[in-house]
From TrEMBL:
It comes from Spongospora subterranea. GO terms for biological process: axonemal dynein complex assembly. This is PIH1D1/2/3 CS-like domain-containing protein. Residues 49-75 are annotated as: Disordered. It comes from the Eukaryota. Belongs to the PIH1 family. CDD domains: ACD_sHsps_p23-like. Residues 77-170 form the PIH1D1/2/3 CS-like domain. One of its GO terms (cellular component) is cytoplasm.
Length: 174
């Protein structure tokens, strides 16, 4: 639009088009409002969840079906410990030729020690997957997400005096 060529009738037509056809309306266009004049409406997470139709919050839903299985089980979780193991040679220790460092990505295996006192080896059910461990016994239940992906087919387990030791080789994404 070439503004130099607008006539008075063109300006009046634009005022009518935009709804500015009276003198009193011009004052409304120049009024300023401050943020304090607007009322802030804050909604809680519970209100937003009901509005969106969600029944469960995201932290209540697990992607692994075994995690929710027996979720209301009254069995306690046994005490456990996870250690990262590295296979080091003299060259690694003294010369550092392999490129291994102290970080967890350089570990070769996971050692999981689970204390299940007053249990026998026949009563323990151990289910291993690449990213999780599930232990069930008459007295205990443990569902554990592993910190690294493991080769569950090549793992090794030993049960001695109420302590289960599971060694799982780590799968590296190289």
């Amino acid at each position: 639009i070439n503004l130099e060529m607008l006539s008075y009738q063109d300006v009046e037509a634009m005022k009518t088009l935009f709804g500015v056809d009276r003198e009193g309306d011009q004052g409304q266009l120049t009024e300023h409002s401050s943020p304090s004049e607007f009322e802030a409406v804050a909604k809680t997470g519970e209100e937003l969840r009901h509005e969106s139709g969600q029944i469960w919050s995201p932290d209540e839903v697990s992607t692994d079906p075994l995690a929710s299985q027996d979720s209301y089980d009254g069995r306690p979780e046994p005490s456990y410990d996870i250690k990262l193991l590295q296979n080091l040679s003299a060259e690694d220790t003294y010369f550092g030729l392999s490129g291994k460092d102290l970080s967890s990505r350089s570990c070769d295996s996971l050692l999981i020690t689970i204390a299940v006192p007053d249990e026998c080896v026949e009563s323990i059910d151990l289910d291993l997957r690449p990213n999780r461990l599930l232990l069930r016994s008459p007295k205990y239940k443990l569902f554990l997400h592993l910190p690294h992906t493991v080769n569950d087919a090549k793992g090794d387990a030993a049960f001695v005096n109420g302590v289960l030791r599971v060694v799982l080789p780590v799968v590296h994404d190289e």
